[in-house]
């Protein structure tokens, strides 16, 4: 690959192993998409093969019963620092015949959440188990795959009395985990790494705090480290949710507006717009007050971002891999758009002699809340 950048590709059933040099030589491009929230991440590998290459047989077997699960691990090392971009499974592949005796083999897949959406476990009981205990019990079966649970108990912990109610599993593990997360305003996703063959299954609030990544610099001459960066401001994207709190004593339903600012979702912009839309969450009238408030906080956080930045960078120029689900600073974009942003998604595009990233940044207002950001 590039000087200072090395790619490691591991493929195999259940436990992947480093691929041969012949397969690496046939690899022409790698694309990995990392998303925030509960949207699964994915990857795409492209190989150029001769029509008699044994790699045809190797990958076509992955759709048969003999190898039901083919796991793929993609690791990139930048300046001596390894970064696991993807730990997932193949879900689709196709061969496109070419000219001069060569074909293009395209392999697609998603992260390990794909393994959680195979078998439905409808009706499985969880007697006297609060939500976070059910989540841990579901995730423990995936420890053999190197998936380590990171479960944050919600503010409200309801332990159902078995004589009153027994919670039961709904759908596949992935569907039920996402349902439990939405009920308390949380997200669920699997983050690859930090070491190959290990992943973190995170079930908790979408956190927008922490140490930011080195700043993205634009319009700064020799200090510019992005190829392009542009911003849009859409105040219509912001909504103010209103939850209904039912008072059991007076039988009165009280509407309460919910702001989008919480300890885990601080204001990244100093001047947020006035919400042009009000959304009444009617279903919250049937919920306990604290649970209704959590639903409102989650909705407000999902509809708070009105500033969006999109751009492209060269990893060698930037000096490291930009990560999704973390904060990053921006400099040189002007007073309205400088400051900290949340990295909503990152697309890694790797080719021989090239490693670029497309990224999307979001925040909830204009003008930085900090006098400067880490360089």
Short summary of the structure?
The chain has helices at residues 21-26, 55-60, 131-139, 173-183, 289-302, 315-318, and strands at residues 5-13, 17-18, 27-35, 42-50, 70-78, 81-97, 102-111, 147-151, 187-192, 199-204, 213-217, 228-233, 239-246, 253-257, 269-271, 277-281, 307-314, 327-331, 339-351, 354-363, 366-368. With 375 residues, the protein is mainly β. The radius of gyration is 23 Å and the shape is flat.
Please provide a written account of the structure:
- The chain has 375 residues and is mainly beta.
- The protein has three domains: 108 residues, Thrombin, subunit H; 86 residues, 3-Layer(bab) Sandwich (Phage tail protein beta-alpha-beta fold), CATH 3.55.50; 126 residues, Bacteriophage T4, Gp27, baseplate hub, domain 3 (Elongation Factor Tu (Ef-tu), domain 3).
- It is 13% helix and 41% strand.
- It contains six helices and 21 strands.
- It is flat, with a radius of gyration of 23 Å.
- The mean pLDDT is 87.
End-to-end span in angstroms?
27 Å
Please tell me what the overall shape is: flat
Number of domains: 3
Give me the CATH architecture of the largest domain, please: Beta Barrel
Estimated helix fraction: 10-25%
- H and E string: EEHEEHEEEHEHEEEEEEEEHEHEEEE
- Low-confidence parts, pLDDT < 50 over ≥5 residues? none
What is the strand tally? 21
Query: The CATH topology of the largest domain is what?
Result: Elongation Factor Tu (Ef-tu), domain 3
């Amino acid at each position: 690959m590039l000087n200072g950048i090395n790619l490691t590709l591991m493929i195999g059933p259940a436990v992947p192993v480093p691929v041969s040099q012949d397969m690496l030589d046939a690899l022409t491009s790698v694309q990995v998409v990392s998303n925030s929230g509960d949207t699964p991440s994915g990857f795409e590998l492209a190989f150029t093969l001769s029509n008699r290459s044994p790699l045809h047989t190797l990958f076509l077997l992955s759709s048969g019963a003999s190898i039901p699960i083919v796991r793929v691990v993609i690791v990139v090392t930048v300046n001596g620092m390894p970064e696991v971009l993807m730990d997932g499974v193949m879900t689709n592949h196709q061969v496109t015949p070419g000219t001069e005796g060569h074909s293009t083999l395209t392999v697609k897949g998603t992260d390990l959440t794909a393994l959680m959406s195979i078998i439905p476990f409808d009706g499985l009981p969880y007697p006297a188990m609060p939500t976070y205990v059910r989540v841990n019990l579901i995730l423990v079966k995936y420890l053999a795959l190197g998936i380590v649970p990171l479960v944050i108990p919600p503010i409200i912990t309801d332990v159902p009395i078995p004589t009153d109610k027994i919670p039961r599993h709904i759908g596949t593990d992935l569907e039920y985990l996402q349902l439990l997360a939405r009920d308390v305003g949380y997200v669920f996703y699997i983050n690859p790494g930090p070491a190959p063959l290990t992943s973190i299954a995170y079930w908790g609030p979408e956190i927008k705090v922490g140490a930011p990544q080195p700043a993205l610099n634009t319009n700064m001459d020799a200090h510019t480290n992005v190829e392009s960066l542009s911003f849009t401001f859409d105040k219509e994207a912001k909504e103010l949710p209103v939850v209904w709190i039912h008072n059991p004593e007076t039988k009165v339903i009280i509407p309460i507006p919910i702001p989008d600012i919480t300890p885990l979702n601080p204001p990244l912009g100093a001047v947020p717009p006035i919400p042009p839309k009000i959304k009444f969450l009617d279903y919250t009238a049937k919920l306990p007050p604290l649970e209704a408030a959590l639903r409102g906080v989650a909705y407000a956080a999902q509809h708070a971002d009105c500033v969006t930045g999109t751009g492209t960078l060269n990893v060698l120029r930037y000096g490291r891999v930009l990560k999704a689900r973390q904060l990053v600073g921006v400099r040189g974009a002007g007073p309205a758009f400088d400051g900290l942003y949340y990295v909503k998604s990152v697309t890694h595009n790797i080719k021989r002699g090239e490693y670029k990233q497309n990224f999307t940044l979001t925040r909830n207002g204009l003008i930085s809340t900090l006098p400067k950001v880490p360089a």
